[in-house]
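Box 4.2: Ligand-aware structure prediction
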Amino acid sequence: MKIYRAKDYKDMSRKAANILSAQVILKENSVLGLATGSSPIGVYQQLIEWYRKGDIDFSHVTTINLDEYCGLPPSSKQSYRYFMNVNLFDHINIEPENTHVPNGVSPDAKQECSRYENLIRRVGGIDMQLLGLGHNGHIGFNEPGSAFEAETHCVDLSESTIEANKQYFGSAEEMPRQAYTVGIKTIMQARRIVVVVSGESKAGIVRDALFGPITPQVPASVLQLHNNVTLVGDEAALSLL
Ligand code: F6R
């Protein structure tokens, strides 16, 4: 695992955006696995800036998002589809039909999971997966205890995740209790993985995930078994390493 130390959030975002843009420049039809949440927003802002300068072309890129809340339509401001449109897709020249997020309002959860998994296969798998890291070690919405063999599935969100994300919903009661997530097995099949972490509150879980035992109780610890992971963290998130 390569670890890049960044000064702060902006520096982390720039370093991670450099890695993603190099991927797209070297392979114009790259399949990028993308995440939502606060960690990658700066990466997306940086990519938009470079796109506007004419330095990156997304017209042949395909994106596969990690997750989506069950029950939220794309028009919902809390949906991850909405997040991605607002924070990235609406500002770059990606073809909307090449951007994929699980369908939160699919009437058949099982069918939606196999559709998504087949889609990832059909596009040739993920070239580069961008990940954030949950305070409880989750990646995507693969919560502690998730099987390492899991493909895309529907999960019950943990209390710690509800606590961390309720800020986007007004209150915990309004937050969906379930979400679709790409599974750990699928994440591990990505050819390269880039993890972005920022802030002191992530320092403990960064240490446990990278240097602790590999266990489903800390889902991100599985990344120790992947042969091409780059972690980009700011000083605060890396302070316990
Ligand atoms: C989001 C996702 C989650 C987040 C994680 C960290 O698509 O899959 O695993 O990456 O919850 O969230 P932030 O970046 O908000 O701390």
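In the box above, the bound molecule is fructose -6-phosphate. Helices lie at 9-26, 41-52, 80-87, 109-122, 159-165, 184-188, 203-211.
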